Amino acid sequence: MTDQSPIDMISPFRSALSAAGFLGEVETDTALRSAMSTDNSVYQIMPDLIVAPVDAADLVRLAAVLDTPPFLTLPVTARGGGTGTNGQSLNRGVIVDLRRHMNRLMGVNTEKGWADVEPGIVLDDLNDRLRPTGWFFAPETSTSSRCTIGGMVSTDASGKGSRIYGKTSDNIIGIELARAEGLLSSMESPPGWAVAMLAGAETAARAGRAAFIAHTPRLNRRFTGYDLERACPPEGGFEWWRLFLGSEGTLGLISRIRVKLRRIEAGKRLIVVGFDSFRNALAAATPLIDADPTAVEVMDERVQAIAESAGILRRLPRTLQSLPGQKIAYVFVEINGDDPALLDLRVNHCRQIVAGLPGAGATHVAADLDEIRDLWAIRSAGVGLLGKVDGPARPVAFVEDCVVPPENLPAFVDEFLAVLTRHDLGFGIYGHVDVGCLHIRPALNIDADADREKLVAVSDAVFALTRKYGGIFWGEHGKGVRGAYLRDWIGAEAYGALQGVKAAFDPAGRFNPGKLVSPRDDIMGIATTPFRPFNAPDGDPLTRAFRCNGNAQCLSYSEKTPMCPSFKATADLRHSPKGRADALRAWHVAKRSGAVSPEMEADLLGVLDGCLGCKACASSCPVQVDIPTMRSAFYADYFARHRRSIADQLTLLAERSSPAIAAFSPLLRPVWPLLARLGGALVGSVDLPGRIAPRPPADLHLSEAELERGSLPDGTVILVQDWFTALFDPDLLADFVAGFSALGLRPRLLEMLPAGKAAQTMGDMVRFRQMATRLNARLQLAGRTGRPLIGMDPAFVMQLRQDYPKAGIHPPAVQLPQEFLAAEMAAGRIAARPLKSGKVRIMSHCTEATGAANAPALWKEVFAALGITAEAPATGCCGMAGLFGHQTRHQTVSRKLFDMSWRRHTEDETPLAATGFSCRCQTGRLSGRSSRHPLGLLAQALAG
């Protein structure tokens, strides 16, 4: 490659792509480039251009333009889910985003057991689509909700169950490449233009095959990436496509993958055992293999303690939960099979083995698939929480997928931990003990030079240990910048053969340059590759942006999970919590150095405007990267320097003036439809509420005198409104009054004061604090009556619980209605009243479902006490999210989200309830179906 900067080629390259008819996006947006500059590692490399091809033909157009003289040296790197732990898909030049559009299941052959997929399809998405056929794609990764098949192929990923299922490379039948000349498929005879290229690769591969085999241990987690052994089978032939498995995009662009499928086994059991120490848990692996399990996983005491403090372990069966201060290391043993009798025998054999193991304590066997899924989720969630550790040093993935023969694992771990002790490093451990792979993540502060030196020293020491114990340094997550060790590990002769293969497929060395193999001395180093900023100054409002570690749970493909709606609707990385955190971090760093440009701020404003403010990231993200709160901080800074739009000014005025608007509602009601249309035109919104609520009956209001007396009759419940439902949702108040009254309670209404939600969202923090302080004083006064406070809208309740404490304001407990009712019923203060059986469907507000995870289940309990079956389907965001769904510029995203997750639940005759005002509005305007608050359905049922 030449010394010409990629930046100099970007503008003419964009023009050339357009002229060639490239159909996908071609972007230099600074926020998107920032999002693409990081992964789940500590590294950061800023690309120059992002392209998102729509299909294989588009990839060929891209390759053809790249193959023209002006762009022959332009670096090109494919990217899938971006979940790499060592910078696998980070590079300068052009990043090819394959997840955004190339995510299709192209075909399934259920007779032969294979499927053709595009590289951007997500693993869980693929298996969800395959499930009705009875087949699945076997490799199970902890990032299965967002990792792509293309990324799995590139890193030869594996995970739980690999002792039985193997790695990704064991489950691939063939691939298709996109080249400048066209498509090259391993499932077909090569075209004439590819013959010489393949011959050159074969010559190099055969020359180095023997040396390659001599340097690769015979392990289940075999070495892959330029696999000269399998590419040149001893019986003859050349399976060139096997060279690409684990090659991390360094050989070219993959456009299609044929995956081998396995039958879904009918039976599944999960045995979870608590051990008194990690050492005893680790020693259990070898004996447990005798039960022929699909997987044996371990979680050490440190991960257990982190998960315990986060409340995750409360989801474990009570017998497995620890006592205060007790340390437990958990072992998870999964056993699968089709023969129920044989499955039970294997489970019993496993339990007999456990009974004789030192340190084994409580044992739980799960047979229900939902419970098994939940138990595995606890293990996965505990791992994600490693990034939530407080302080500047946090667990880092850089020596965390070493593999040694299982019989060598205890001695290897002893020496590994001794290395960490010498460097005074804390750590967490989990992993796949059945195949000798443990994930050990030392805690480092990457901002500190001393800890960067420790990263190198520990890496060198652990690399030497893997060789000592007959293992592999890169056993599961690929190599990335750790490919710097490849030449020493594989030896000069074999490495020379890898260089020959690279030269055959990529003579210019332009595919993911600096990774794994290069003809030049430009391999990236573990300490010389740029690091991402790791910590913000103490007390900085953007701290969570720096703590985002790229674990990327926010990139889940599933429409059933709330986080993150804007990413689900767009598949655009910048419109995710991770992408927004990257953009905010980049802006923060630039601001501190005086390098913020108008373009950067404009791009950042664009991605923040696309956030629905649902707050799912504040609770669902393992490290709680709360984008809405950080957006408020950025807006506060930005609008201290810039004038707000008329739309924002009018919205802020409406919130501040809402008590006065409510007071004058009798005068405003006749003209409100006209005012709503005029207001919509002024603020760029559609479908604003066309009516204003009448004033509630005077006897429903709690007077100031009643509050001051501090004594209210037994059975009184105090209803607390937010300003939006108080003004625009009279049916909600009617449902609350009817529902509580039907249960023999006395609902009373607290005078409405705005909570400051709009001001907080828009960064008007002075007025937010003023409104929040006034409301808190009123809530404190109401709380002193000793009567329960019930919030009428879940988003409002979550604001009081999540946002007020962060602002140093601590209101009394304000409950969701189902929380109060379920507790009263459980205590016997509200009697169950079995009625004629029936069914209702309750749709939860996404902020409620993530902020109070048991909220949907509590509604089911309440309705069950009345003999009514309540469905509470898992859904994502409905797409309204306050004002977001009303704003004209957001209609496409808003409507797509409703179609993805909510519409199908509105299309039958089941009585429908939605807990959020936004959700009821969205359901009505997009489905034509009216929905009530659950209390309305409850009142209706009690009325007979």
From TrEMBL:
Domain named FAD-binding PCMH-type: residues: 43-264
Cross-referenced InterPro entries: 4Fe4S_Fe-S-bd, 4Fe4S_Fe_S_CS, FAD-bd_oxidored_4_C, FAD-bd_PCMH, FAD-bd_PCMH-like_sf, FAD-bd_PCMH_sub2, FAD-linked_Oxase-like_C, Oxid_FAD_bind_N
Cofactor(s) listed: FAD
One Pfam family it belongs to: FAD_binding_4
Organism: Paenirhodobacter populi
Gene Ontology molecular function terms on file: D-lactate dehydrogenase (cytochrome) activity; D-lactate dehydrogenase (NAD+) activity; FAD binding; iron-sulfur cluster binding; metal ion binding
Record domain 4Fe-4S ferredoxin-type: where: 602-633
Protein name listed in UniProt: FAD-binding oxidoreductase
Keyword Nucleotide-binding: no
UniProt keywords, alphabetically: FAD, Flavoprotein, Iron, Iron-sulfur, Metal-binding, Oxidoreductase
The keyword Lyase is annotated on this UniProt entry: no
One Gene Ontology biological process: lactate catabolic process
